[in-house]
Amino acid sequence: MFDSLTGKLQNVFRNLRGLGKISEENVSDSLREVRMALLDADVNFKVVKDFLDRIKEKSLGQEVIQSVHPGQQIIKIIHDELVGLLGSANAGLEFRGTPGVLMMVGLHGSGKTTSSAKLARWLQKQDRKPMLVGADVYRPAAMDQLEKLGQQLGVPVFIQRGETDVLAIARGAREQAAATGRDLLIFDTAGRLQIDEPLVQELVRLRDLVRPDEILLVVDAATGQEAVNVATHFDKALQITGSILTKLDGDARGGAALSLKAVTQKPIKFAGMGEKLEDFEPFHPERMASRILGMGDVVSLVERAQEQVNEEDAAEAAAKLAKGQFTLDDFLKQMRALRRMGPMKQLLGMLPGMGAVKDQLDNFDEREMVRIEAIIQSMTPQERRRPEILDGSRRRRIAAGSGTTPADINQLMNQFTQMQKMMKQYSAML
């Protein structure tokens, strides 16, 4: 996410930190590099111009010029302006009554169906009772996909196969929601490869009938500036209330994220960070700005940990580590919890300062975690509790069972032994 942009901005920041004195010339030189980085990231050119004008004006103010660390002050200005560009604060969902109604709109392939399910999962955790509605009458595969996702989540899905009138589907969905005690309807609407008037008019008629609390535009982050044109058209026709950015995990540019709010003046409310249903989170402008600038995002990292790691398990693991009783079974349990939090590269990227070791992050092999899990699972319960009994014969058997080599087993055991020693030494110092 934003890999290319983050790398270029990190170079600018290194130069800024070395500035002992601020002048219009060196500020202009630095902002020229920022401009090129943003344009390369496919940020809308007008958004870039306005953004840099604001930074330049504040950077040449008296407070910065007289500052003890002027370069750091300019970096803070860039950070603050980036937060403002992304929307200042997280904008939640607003519901006027029961059932609440959400309309998901966007082009075909933007991720509407998956995002509808992800949003249903998120709302479930907020103690809501959502029902998904298959309102794409042109693509039966979309209804099939929505039905499967609903089954995974345990969320009811309203589908009327063979019905081509979206308004009839909407009426049936409302009746079903009232009969089953559902307090929230999420309409997964039809998309096109490009915007056309029949599609827009159908969405307008659906909007006028169901009177949604939120109309959320689902946008593929990789579409760059084209996302701005799509958002402008949908907003003009439907008056969207916000947007969901999808596939942020795979986009190295991020131009859509930086352009969307500024052009539509409607907040980005959620971000899709991967293919799994749990790879979905509220969009926090300040946290996203910190990620883009390579400053990490510890708050989101902690929230993920709280969601995936059981407090009692964590306390028990810490106590075992301190006593030197931490086994490979415990190690496997903690590693699985860590993997549930997301790709390791993504998690490490949330730590402050990790932008400086971008090459190491890029070279991190996620398959290493899979290999470690396979090795431990190929051991007997006794071997996991007492790894000291692993002789050459046992290691060859484990290697064969896990599809690895005895050298891989040796490396894992050396690392595990070192970790145990370090924790013993640390607990002795406390």
Brief account:
The chain is an alpha/beta fold and 430 residues long. The chain has 21 helices and 8 strands. Helices cover 59% and strands 9% of the residues.
Q: How many strands, what sense, and barrel or not for the largest sheet?
A: 8 strands, mixed
Structural class: alpha/beta
- Name the strands of the widest sheet in spatial order: 3-2-4-1-5-6-7-8
Radius of gyration, CA atoms, in whole angstroms: 26 Å
Task: Give the SSE order as H and E letters.
Answer: HHHHHEHEHEHEHEHEHEEHHHHHHHHHH
The general outline is flat
Average residue-wise pLDDT: 82
| Oligomeric status | single chain
Whole-Å distance between the termini? 39 Å
The helicity comes to 55-70%
Please count the helical segments: 21
Strand content: 5-15%
**Low-pLDDT segments:** none
Number of strands: 8
How is this structure best described in words?
By secondary structure, the protein is α/β, with parallel strands linked by helices. It is 59% helix and 9% strand. The chain contains 21 helices and 8 strands. The protein has helices at residues 3-17, 24-40, 45-59, 62-65, 70-86, 112-124, 140-153, 166-180, 197-210, 226-238, 255-264, 285-292, 298-308, 311-323, 328-340, 344-349, 358-362, 367-377, 381-385, 392-402, 406-429; strands spanning 100-105, 130-135, 157-158, 184-189, 214-220, 242-246, 268-272, 280-282. It has an 8-stranded mixed sheet with strand order 3-2-4-1-5-6-7-8, sandwiched between helices. Helix 8 (166-180) packs parallel to helix 9 (197-210). The longest helix is centred in the C-terminal third of the chain and has 24 residues, at 406-429.
